[in-house]
Amino acid sequence: MKRVLIVKVTSLGDVVEALPVVADVQRKFPGAKVDWAVDDAFAEIVHWNAGIDRVLCAPLRRFKKARRWSDFKAIWDSIAELRAERYDAIIDIHGVYKSAIIAFIARGKRRFGYLAQDLGEQGAAFAYNGRFGPRPKCDAWLGMRISTGEALGYTVDTPPDFQMRIPRDGNALPAPDAPTALIFHATSKEEKKWPVAHWGELCNELVKRGLRIELPWGSDAEHATAKEIAALVPGAVILPRLTVTQVAQRIEDSALVVGTDTGFVHLGHALLKPTVMIFVATNAEHLGVRAPDRSISIGDGHHVPPVSVALDAIDRVYPARTGDASKGPAVTAV
């Protein structure tokens, strides 16, 4: 196996959680080149994986929204780059029309995808001449690793290795002068949000434990929510609007990441930070993060988790300290 193409196009958290397939492939096939096809909105995240040779991207999401000629031309131009290599295997771990089209256009001996009942869009089945087995009974992230292993003939038996290398440049914020909890209160859907009052109670408790509270945001609505939370938490800092890379740098500099079911919390998990993910309307068992003594997901997807449950989870990944609060906990890597 000399060159493999992985197709996982969106979204931020899904792309982050899929990255361990690269280390899996290269562990089985030392020296193999792994390329990755992704929407250009998430391409920089894939670039951070040290094991990927080529990142192939096009503005698929942007073109769907705006239908601009420049985006169409960029997509058209990307086809030549996609077809510049011939692959021993093309692995579509996304399973929708756009990923299937990418897999079909790419040059390769075998194109692997999900069985019809496991596809996100069943019409995507046209693209494949090889299939994974039925989706395994596990979370989505391990499932992608297992499916890739089924296609390439190996068993997944190691913890995930994200191989993340976040660039450091002159645009990074100054490092915080105290252990910091990054609070990712924003999420893609209204029903996935945790109440502002809950965030206020949680953050005040973290302040008592010696943590500085920082509130990232990415839109006017999220900025307004950050202000509401900050009004309840003396000393809380509302960060300036950051790029994706700056957020990743801030995560690396933090002591604790707490947030809802959103991509940046997955990034905190991938960067081996103590992480708690709060689920209100989605499935924690299928979509959550977990690693012994480091990452925990809470919530059953049907009820709003109480603050006490979130604090219990934080105690497990970032124990309350009676000594020097400036010292973070030992981190157990997975």
Explain what this protein looks like in three dimensions:
There is one protein chain. Helix 9 links the parallel strand 10 and strand 11. The protein is of the alpha/beta class. The strands form three sheets. Strands 3-2-1-5-7-8 form a six-stranded parallel β-sheet, with helices on both faces. Strands 11-10-9-12-13-14 form a six-stranded parallel β-sheet, sandwiched between helices. The chain folds into two domains: 3-152, 3-Layer(aba) Sandwich (Rossmann fold), CATH 3.40.50.2000; 180-317, Glycogen Phosphorylase B (Rossmann fold), CATH 3.40.50.2000. It has helices at 12-18, 20-28, 43-47, 60-66, 69-82, 97-105, 140-152, 196-208, 220-232, 244-253, 263-270, 284-287, 307-317, and strands at residues 3-7, 33-39, 52-58, 86-87, 89-92, 107-108, 111-113, 130-131, 180-184, 212-215, 237-238, 256-260, 275-278, 295-298. The radius of gyration is 20 Å and the shape is globular. It is a peripheral membrane protein. Pathway: Bacterial outer membrane biogenesis; LPS core biosynthesis. It is found in: Cell inner membrane. Keywords: Cell inner membrane, Cell membrane, Glycosyltransferase, Lipopolysaccharide biosynthesis, Membrane, Transferase.
For the biggest β-sheet, the strand order reads 3-2-1-5-7-8
Radius of gyration: 20 Å
**CATH architectural group of the largest domain:** 3-Layer(aba) Sandwich
Label the overall shape.
globular
Mean pLDDT rating? 93
Would you list the SSEs in sequence order as H and E?
EHHEHEHHEEHEEEHEHEHEHEHEHEH
Structural class: alpha/beta
